[in-house]
Amino acid sequence: MDRRSFFKSELRQYVTGILESASLLNNAETPDNSTQDYFKSFYSCYPLLSEAPYNLLAEAAQKLGIEIQGKSKLELAKEIFAERR
Predict the structure, then answer these.
(1) How far does Cα 36 stand from its chain's mean position?
(2) At what angle are helices 73-84 and 54-63 packed, to 10 degrees?
(3) Which of 14-18, 46-50, 58-62 is predicted with the least confidence, judged by mean pLDDT?
(4) Per-residue pLDDT tens for 30-59?
(5) Per-residue DSSP letters for 5-24?
(6) Which of 12, 25, 60, 79 has the fewest CB atoms within 10 Å distance of its CB?
(7) Which residues, including other chains, have CB under 8 Å from residue 28's CB and lie 6 or more apart?
(8) What is the rounded distance in angstroms from the CA atom of residue 78 to the CA atom of residue 42?
(9) Could you give phi then psi for residue 51, rounded to 5 degrees?
(10) How many other C-beta atoms are found inside a 10 Å radius of the C-beta of residue 62?
């Protein structure tokens, strides 16, 4: 695999897998508070935010119809998870 193909497709699949895994883990816990607890502080969701580039979160947010103007990675991730539930 070359660098170009990694950044075009593999990275997107990797980040999507991380988001889905985090969602599955949250669903295994308490149904209502798990996502809120995960995003309660920057440090609790740091693994997700460190692995997911802003442009992929922005792309996912746009597909869900979420406004991205002036929002941080944390805010986008919160809204994406809220929409996906």
Answers:
(1) 14
(2) 40
(3) 14-18
(4) 555 555 677 777 778 888 888 889 999 899
(5) HIIIIIHHHHHHHHHHHHHH
(6) 25
(7) 34
(8) 11
(9) -90, -25
(10) 12
